[in-house]
Amino acid sequence: MNTSLVFTFIGADRPGLVECVAEAIAQHGGSWQESRMIELAGQFAGIARVQLPQQQVPTLRTALEALAQQGLQVSFAADEAAADSRPARQSAFLKLIGNDRPGIVREVSRALLQRDINVTEMSSNISSAPMTGEPLFEASVAIDLPAEGELGNLEEALDAIAEALNIEIDLDSRPL
């Protein structure tokens, strides 16, 4: 019987990090299902889900933990079955842009939490505004709302945050 194993890893960026993780997975009969990885400030981090025979899980865990000798820290999700038992939800997408300032992520994430909205993916960066060169905060956020979620209430809250912080927040509720 196959099962899923979810884990994260982080280490100083260098060629071969993904290969050493992939090699351990392949040696234990695992199949790479999905992942997100990024290099940021000289560190390389990722989260991955692999599928493998249940009896191989303990030895794969040991093999991945042994990658610490190569400078890679690995952590495992506490409950592999939890991802399959989530209730039905609807997806939407947020795009934020505006002059950088403290509190943007805090205010938006607070509004989402108050409406039981889950952030499923987020990427952000600081760039220079085209005309002024001022720091410009940009973020793309994928969210999951309860199946019966009310988008109108969310739009009102995001509009209030956008006005208070002088940023632009666009909500796209089309299926992703």
Automatic annotation (TrEMBL):
<dbReference type="InterPro" id="IPR050990">
    <property type="entry name" value="UPF0237/GcvR_regulator"/>
</dbReference>
<keyword id="KW-0963">Cytoplasm</keyword>
<keyword id="KW-0678">Repressor</keyword>
<dbReference type="Pfam" id="PF13740">
    <property type="entry name" value="ACT_6"/>
</dbReference>
<feature type="domain" description="ACT">
    <location>
        <begin position="93"/>
        <end position="172"/>
    </location>
</feature>
<dbReference type="GO" id="GO:0005737">
    <property type="term" value="C:cytoplasm"/>
</dbReference>
<dbReference type="InterPro" id="IPR045865">
    <property type="entry name" value="ACT-like_dom_sf"/>
</dbReference>
<keyword id="KW-0804">Transcription</keyword>
<protein>
    <recommendedName>
        <fullName>Glycine cleavage system transcriptional repressor</fullName>
    </recommendedName>
</protein>
<dbReference type="GO" id="GO:0006355">
    <property type="term" value="P:regulation of DNA-templated transcription"/>
</dbReference>
<dbReference type="InterPro" id="IPR002912">
    <property type="entry name" value="ACT_dom"/>
</dbReference>
<dbReference type="InterPro" id="IPR016867">
    <property type="entry name" value="GcvR"/>
</dbReference>
